[in-house]
Task: structure prediction
Amino acid sequence: MNTSTAPSVSRTTGSQTLARGLTILRQVVDTQDGLSATEVAQHAKVHRTVAYRILNTLCEAELLHRGEDNRYRGAAGLLSLAAAGHQHLRNVASSHLRSAADSLGVTVALLVREGNRAVSLAVVSPRAGTYHVAFSEGSKHPVTSGAAGLALLAAEPASAHDTEQVRSVRERGFAQTFGEVEPNMHGLAIPLPGAGNRPTACLNVITLHEQSAIDCIEPLKLVAGRLLDELNT
Result:
């Protein structure tokens, strides 16, 4: 009688493939100009055919897309995943963002901290007015720069490692910068401390005019207070 058995399938095979896919996804979206398949293979230390297979799977899932230059970049599917990760916060904030944008005449955004990045979770532009500064949901920049970055750091519990600038933002209740994320743009942000599973966040305005940013300070503080009250009930 033949007692030989078929080779067993490793229980970790699927998890290894998933881990590679997630690593490649992060590598691509963290690179400003995207990556080619060859670059992905080099960074992930896999054969090019393996890189192609994973990239094609991520494209089919609409998490990545391949441009005409054959470089892979983040796709629209990432936005829905990011929104789902903080869905309650986004849902509660939406009406407050709309009210603030329309009354102040500026684009108002909700940003959260993910690792060392400030990520825009929701962006609402005013329905009236001749022009306004806008940016995309899902856009990100280092948490160490810009009014939003300062506000996110100030929204966290006080630490001995806090800079004087962060301590000042926490004391004043707002952060104001110029040209740190976008050239010639004034940034204003209001910290939103986290609680429980809710991440630290901030309300953010970017405008061409310093006075517009100044005029938004007190109204946006009131919006932040109402939003936190609703989140905490």
Residues 117 and 214 are 25 Å apart (CA to CA). Helices lie at 13-29, 37-44, 48-60, 77-85, 87-104, 146-154, 164-172, 210-232. The domain at 80-232 is CATH 3.30.450.40 (Beta-Lactamase).
